[in-house]
Amino acid sequence: MTSTPPSPLSAAAPATSFGEVGPDGTVFLRLPDGSQREVGQWAAGDAATGLEFFARKYQDLVTEIDVAAKRLADDRSTPAQAAAIVERVRKSVLEPTFVGDLAALVARIGQLEVLINVKKEALAEAKEEQRKQASEAREKLVAEADQLSTSTAWKVTTERFAAIVEEWKLIPRSDRAKENELWKQISAARTTFDKARRAHYVELDAQRSSAKAAKEALVKQAQALSTSRDWQKTTGEYRKLLDQWKKAGRAGKADDKLWEQFKAAQDVFFAARNEQNAERDEDEKKALVVKEELLAEAEKLLPIKNIGAAKRELHAIQDKWEKAGRVPRNDVRRIEARLKKVEDAVRDADSAKWTNKNTELQGRANDTVIRFREAVEKRERALQRAVDAGVASAIAKAQGELDGAKAMLAVAEQSSQKLK
Fold first, then answer.
1. CA 177 to chain centre
2. What ranges make up the beta strands (E) of 254-341?
3. Cα separations (Å) of 76 from 61, 81, 274?
4. Ramachandran bin of 290, using left for φ above 0, alpha for ψ from -120 to 50, beta for the remaining angles
5. Residues facing residue 38 across a β-bridge
6. Contact 342/314 with Cβ under 8 angstroms?
7. Structure confidence at residue 8 (pLDDT)
8. CA spacing 20 to 30 A to 122: which of 89, 195, 316, 375?
9. pLDDT for 218-232, tens place per residue?
10. What's the rounded Cα separation, in Å, for the pair 217 and 219?
11. Element (H, E) at 51
């Protein structure tokens, strides 16, 4: 048979021994020194019931102190909140309207006050540690900003300065005066960097303007030479112009258009020269014959049966191709296109080989992921069985094995993703 929990009245019964009810219903509290103090009147029933009523008031104060201590110990309330309860109960002690062990209640109040002081000290230490960490974090950002002030990685450093500002905002505030001084250092470092960055782009714009003017002049010279028929001298002049073009630097957005104009002028001259010299250029004709033979050898490689052998033979053909020299201008595109067709086929076959290998690796990686997922599911079931059994050691062991399986699954999934 189970015992019945004590009623609130019987639970408060011990406190009744510290009071009594007079014949006229006056309720007295016996003080620690043995004297008595009037705490109220009772006329609603017998004396025992009255004492129990006033004892419950005492028990309520005890409970309030105990609950406050428990909440404070569990960090569910602040020292200030607990101190407010102490002050309220202390007022009740000074003007008692209850019956109970006054000395024990005062002792409880003292214990709570000790706990309040301990918590205050702990919070103060935590606050000081937080302040220290915040200060160190800010000083670290200041040091980084000082280093970045001389950086020439303009885009990356600009982004990093923006990130530093956001990180600064997230650090808890503590010592505003010191923080303001540190912020001034970051601001100064960023200003130094910004000035250098702006100066760099001003200089870059100036260089581009200078390069544009120089290349515009080179385009005019190239166009003037395009109608020349002094083949040898003009070819040398074009080489000189090309060297000057390379040294002039980038002209910004205008660079591509200027190059097209420059190259078009060259093409006019060289097209005329090649057309006139085509019949007499025996070396180009011989090169064409050699390359036609090399093309025939290359085209025999199709379709690709052995990629390794095909690559070796193509490399040998390409070496001979380079050594054969130039061919007539009108034949260049035709024979290059034929060779490119063979080169593309070899490259595609080589790529397909690696694609198949990657597919095999992906399949293995997927199998590994599936096995680890099954292991995770198995350990989740084991953990549930341990929880149902209520055995703490079994639960801890099952949880550890589940965490390990999940970690291995994460690694397997990451490896599988890299192969996709």
1. 31
2. none
3. 19, 10, 93
4. alpha
5. 28
6. yes
7. 39
8. 89
9. 888 888 878 888 888
10. 5
11. helix 47-73
